[in-house]
Amino acid sequence: MKGCILVACCARLLSFGVIFILCHLVYLGPISAQQKDLAYAGNLLKAKKYNEAESTYRQLLRSDKLADSYAGLAESLAMQHKIRQALLVLKEARANNFANDANVLAVGGHVSYLHAHAVSYPYWGLHF
């Protein structure tokens, strides 16, 4: 009797686990090529390969305008000390209605900090 109850409980838990996994896969759906390219470009940023990341983000922006692409491009430009170009990219992101996106706002703050740092200490020889 106890064995039957245990088997029934295990079967029920297993069925809930399978249903959960299937619902999760249906919700997420397949990963698109653009999401893979965004992940690849993000990994390039983490690896400090800013030139490669810049070209990847530019290609992504040619195909589809996404807030993450704008943010990544601005960050890769800022890390190469191309502050003015990064500010132009952020301005374009704002023009495309991505002004309230969390990633664009975060990168905008970082670019603003780097710009202020470069302007405040131009003759001290501080290079970050």
Give a verbal description of the structure:
The chain is 78% helix and 0% strand. The chain is built from 6 helices and no strands. α2 (33-46) runs antiparallel to α3.
Classified by CATH, the class of the largest domain is Mainly Alpha
Q: Strand-residue fraction?
A: under 5%
Determine the fraction of residues in helical runs and give it as a percent range. Answer: over 70%
Strand count, sense and barrel status of the largest sheet are:
none
Known CATH architecture of the largest domain: Alpha Horseshoe
How many helices? The count is 6
- The helix/strand series, from N terminus to C terminus, equals HHHHHH
- In the CATH hierarchy, the third-tier topology of the largest domain is known as Serine Threonine Protein Phosphatase 5, Tetratricopeptide repeat
Query: Averaging pLDDT over every residue, what do you get?
Result: 78
Q: Can you say what the CATH homologous superfamily of the largest domain is?
A: Tetratricopeptide repeat domain
Query: Could you say which overall geometry the principal axes of the C-alpha atoms support?
Result: globular
Q: What oligomeric state is this?
A: single chain
Q: Count every beta strand, where a strand is a DSSP E run of 2 or more residues.
A: 0
- Low-confidence runs (pLDDT<50, min 5 residues)? 6-27
Classify the secondary structure makeup into a structural class.
mainly alpha
The number of domains is 2
State the end-to-end distance.
71 Å
Radius of gyration: 23 Å
